[in-house]
User: What shape does this take?
Amino acid sequence: MIERPRSTLVELAGLTYGYGSEAVLEDIDIAIGCGEFVGIVGPSGAGKTTALRVIAGSLRPAHGRVERRADLRIAYVPQVETINWSFPVSVRECVLMARVGRDRRLPWSSRAERAQVAAVLARLDIGNLADRHIRELSGGQQQRVFIARALLGEPELLLMDEPTSGVDVRLRHELLHLLDDLHARGLAIVLTTHDLNGIAAHLPRVICLNRRVIGDGVPHRVLTADVLERTYGASMEVLEHGGMPVVVDSFRRHAPHPHAPHVAHAPHASDAHRSETPA
Amino acid sequence: MIDELLRPFDFEFFRNGLIVATMAGALCGAIGVYVVLKGMSYIGHGLSHAIFGGFAASALLGVNFLLGAGAWGIASAFMINAVTRRRVIGSDAAIGVITTASFALGLALFALFGRAGTNFDAALFGSILGVGADDVIAIGVVSLLAGTLIFLRYRALLFTTFDPEVADVAGVNTARIDALLTVVLAASILATMQVLGVTLIAAVLVIPAAVARMLTNSFARMLQLATGIGAVCGFVGMNLSYHLDVQSGPTIVLVAATLFAAVFFATGINGRRRAAGLMAS
Assistant: This one.
C-alpha cells in the first residue's frame, strides 16, 4: 500500500484502459505528488506509454477515476522515435510551440517570447542552435530541444516517454543529471524507461507495471527478483552495488557444450537491458 | 508581341478566370502546406472527387452549385475527418470507399439524366470559360476564411500538424483544429473546382508545398513560399491556357510540375533530401 503524497498532482484510482476490447491497463492506482521523480518500468506492451498518456490527459479511461489538481500545468516529451524529423521547423520554432494558447495569438513571436526561448535554450546548453533545423542536431541535443519546449510551458509535472531510448551511456548520464537538476528545482517528473540499472535504480520511486501495478516504491524495495519476475515474466537476479540494486539477467544454458570456450557471465547493465525486452 | 500577350485582358471572362486562378493557386498553396505535412494528400484527392457527386446532384436538381456541392463537400469532409480520427476501419480504405462512391454517383447521375446544360468537362478538368463574378466572390470569401484561420490559429495549426499528441496535452483542441482544416480544404476545393477541375486539384495542393519544402527548412517560410508559388503557377498557367487553347486545369498543373522539376534539380541533394522527408511524412 503506497502512502498518498501530501500534495497530489495527479491520481489514478481503479483505472482501466483498453484499445478495443483488450485491456492495456487494469485496476491501476497511482498517485503522483508535488516534486516527485518517478520511473515507470515494464516490458514492451506493458502499458507504460498508455499510463503516461492517461496521466497527461490525452487518453480518457474506460473505467476508474483520474483526478488532476486544478490548473495543473503538464508538459509531455514524446519518444524521439515518434518525432517527424523531416518536418520543416527550426529549434526556435519547435520550442515556441509551447507558447500556444497563451496571451499572444499573432503568428510571429514577441520580443519577450524570443528572450524566454533564448533563456531556456541557454539553460540546456543549446543556446547556439536556435536557428538550426531539428534534424541537424545530435541525439542528445534533439532530446534537449524537446525538454526545452516542455520547460517553456512552465510545467509543474514533466512526463517523458522513454527519454533514454537509443542513447549511449554518456548521453544517458547527461540526461539524468539534467533531470536531477530540474527535479531539485521542484519539478515533478514521471518517465517511462526500459533501463533498469542506468535510470530506474537511480530514481527515488519506481513503479513496475505490466497491465497492473506489480510494485511501487523506492528502488531497493521494488527492484527485487520476485517483483521483476512477475513484471517481466523472466527470471532476474538482483545484486547490490554501492547501496543500489543492480539487475542482472539470470539466463543460464541448460547444458553447456563440453568443448565450448569458457565465457565469464558478467553482470553487466546491458545484459539486463536486453533481457527485459523479449522479442 | 506585348499586344498579343495583353489581348486576353480585354475579355471579362479572362480577367475573372485570371483572378480566380491566381487566388486558387495561392489558396491551395497555403492549405497544401498543412495537407502534405499532415500526410493528408489522399484526403485532398478523395475530397475533390467526393465533391463531384454533389456537383452532379445539384446540377440535376437545379440547386445552386456552390450551395449543393458545398453542403455535400462539408458532409464528406466531416465523414472523412471522423473516420480518420476514430480509426474504426483503415482510413485509407474508408476514404477510398466514401470518395470514389461519391464520384461514381456523380458520373452515374450524369449518365442517367443527362448533363442538364452543365459543363461536365469543366468540372473534371477546369475551364476558363465558365468563370463568372460569383466564382470570384466565392474564391475571395474562401481565401479570406482560410487566411483568417491561418493567421489567428497559426500556432495551434503548427503544433497540431507537427505533434498532435503533445499539442493535445498542451491544451490545443486538436479535434477542432483538424475539423476546421478539413472544412477549409473542402471549401477551397469547391471554390477552385471551376478553374482547376476535380481531377487536378490535388496536384495544386501538393506541388507548391513540395517545391517550397525543397527551398526551406522553416515552416513560416514554407507557408509564404508555397502561397507565392501557387499564385504564380495559377497566373502563368491561366495565361498559357488562353494562348495555347488548352484547358486551364492541366495547364496550371503542368506549369507547377515544370517548376517542381526545375527546383528539384537546382537544389541538388539538399532539396531532394527535404522532399524525400516530405513524402515520408
In short: The domain at 2-280 of chain B is CATH 1.10.3470.10 (ABC transporter involved in vitamin B12 uptake, BtuC). Chain B has a mean pLDDT of 84. The first helix of chain B runs from residue 2 to 6.
